Amino acid sequence: MKKTIALAAVTSMLIFTACSKSSDSSDTTTTANATEESADDAAASEDATATEETDNVASADNTVLEITLKGGDDMKYDQTTLKATAGQTIKLTLVHSGKLPKASMGHNFVLLKNGVNETDFATKALAAKDTDYIPASAAGDIIAHTDLVGGGESSTIEFTAPARGAYTYICTFPGHSAMMKGKLLVQ
Asked: What is the four-CA torsion angle of 112, 115, 118, 122, rounded to 10 degrees?
């Protein structure tokens, strides 16, 4: 009887150990699958962001790139990376997607030349209220800019993409450039 109980105990332990290892293996597989799914989700998210950031339309002859950039009452552009080809004509429309008026929540798009310090430029813009925060003294630092717009308004400009490089764009309304900025990547 004692041998039977001992044999049953050993058998139970062997079965338990085998099940435990099988369960561990299953957990590892589940973890590996979850990691793969997480990586797939991250890649899909990156693809969605890339699409969102570069959802611009080139004309049929590939010479005019049409970009719609939105800025809202949350003081953010909806795209922080724009892409173009050097020499390409860019037709950019800035849309103020918020509701607040220009006097309290105005937005613009100011594309700066390479090497221009955005903080220094924004500081100069503070004193340029009469020219919608585009400082005449720094006109040589600007490649292109839109008008200042308020909630529900828009402004469209056309300009030629500069030479290859990364160019900063900002909103020069007081206090906005810290959050409302991005890069135009020219290839």
From this structure: -70
Residue of higher predicted confidence among 123 and 51: 123
Domain ranges of the chain: 1-53, 55-186
Burial of 153 (0-12, 13-18, 19+ CB in 10 A): middle
SS (HEC) of 28-62 = HHHHHHHHHHHHHHHHHHHHHHHHHHCCCEECCCC
Distance CA 77, CA 38 (A): 28
Measure the CA–CA gap between 119 and 143, rounded to whole angstroms: 17
Mean of pLDDT values over 59-72: 84
Predicted confidence (pLDDT) per residue in 69-79, tens digit: 999 999 999 99
pTM above 0.90, yes or no: no
Mean pLDDT of 60-72: 87
Query: What is the CATH number assigned to the segment(s) 55-186?
Result: 2.60.40.420
Taking residues 146-159, report their average pLDDT.
Answer: 98
Residue 77, C-beta contacts closer than 8 angstroms, at least 6 positions apart: 69, 70, 71, 171, 180, 181, 182
Count of Cβ atoms closer than 10 Å to residue 77 Cβ: 22
Residue 95: closest CA among 111, 71, 76: 71
Contact (Cβ atoms closer than 8 angstroms) between residue 164 and residue 175 = no
